[in-house]
Amino acid sequence: MPLSMPSPSLAPTPVLAPPSSPSPSPTRRAVDSDRRRTSASAILRSVLAHGPVARSTIARLTGLSPASVTDHCNRLTALGLIQEAATLRRSNGVGRPHVPVDLDDSRFVVGGVHVAVPYTTVALLDLRGRVVAERRLNHGEEGQGSSDQQAPSPGPSRVLADAAAGLNALLADAPDRVPLGVGVATGGWVDRDSGTIVEHPLLGWRDVRAREAIHALTGLPVHVDGHARALVNGERLFGRTAGAGRSLLHLFVGNVVDAAFATHDEVHHGPRSQAGAIAHLPLAGGTEPCDCGRTGCLQAELSERTLCRRAREAGVIRTSDPMHILAAAADGDPVAVRLLLHRARMVGRAAGLLLDVLNPDTVVVTEMGAVHREDCLAALREEVGPDRAAAVVPTSFPDSVLAVAGGSVALDVLYRDPLSAPSSTPSSTPSTRSSGSSPGPI
Questions:
Q1: pTM for the whole thing?
Q2: Which has the closest alpha carbon to 339: 322, 351, 352?
Q3: What is the DSSP string of 289-337?
Q4: What integer is the mean pLDDT of 430-440?
């Protein structure tokens, strides 16, 4: 008996629902976030450099669309970072007047902490990198006596606690200012990512968690970096060299001698932020014994400790304060002048060595003699050589370099990611900080 075949199904073909829009992938969201952050950064930095400035000019300077500029300006205004300027401007004197925007530098500040060997500098800086208030906190009696030995440091816990207390006092004296965060800068090996001072040989510090310590005592977001890198960012944002060339080298010569190098707006940090450690580079003609067992290392030869010891041996000063050598030179002491000029020439030799290796467009030098005396700057440039002398300039912050170093750590974070600043809301009023709460990360 033949088998009968089943009839084909006559059920209607189901109608497919239109596909729903897929959720953005984490990668796409990250790319969009990076794009918004980069655009906001470019706009805020354009306002910093050119403000008061029309939105149409910002669009031309940044290459962003007018709509994007308007959107980001609205966001930055809501955050309290920029504001419309009071004066209208006309393009070529005709047409509808533009309403330019400018930084609102009357409200927000960042705290700056710079830990040097004999003292800590605490300061408040506005959004233009200008020092609003500053205080120096001595670590001990260093600088008062005649011994070459530094007074024992009270230790990192005490130094950082004093710094936090100093910052809180400055903020209490500025009730109309809202703190966005704190930048901490120092010499030695500083790991920016972990906020740790890995090693500062002159202070005897190892693995000091500076970010955690300052945050616990202020309630504010804290960022930590080496002072040479911090000053590169300060120069790049607020200094005379802002926008001058694609690469910048900073040579810092104090008790600590170190360097930082930036190309295309990025400071080189290296693995665990160890770049810039030049203390033990050999300096031709150096005669000073170093703790490492060699002779003529950069830091041993150029440090302020060495300068002050030589000045005491020559009878120029009786203290360990290098500013007393400057004062003696200003009073016409020929030995003080000779010591400063010799040091400036050796710093020029070090700058020439770094120029040979890195070939930057500009070298910024923070060194006492070159900053305060034209003859020292001339001697430094002469040692560098006539072909490259014009590329060497002193710091843009001769009277506030340490305060600017600390504050620039935090301001660099703000200008790279301004959309993470706290919004201009009642919860961000100055009274908030008196209870120890934080206005939010920058």
A1: 0.85
A2: 322
A3: B-TTS-B-BHHHHHSHHHHHHHHHHTTS-SSS-HHHHHHHHHTT-HHHH
A4: 37
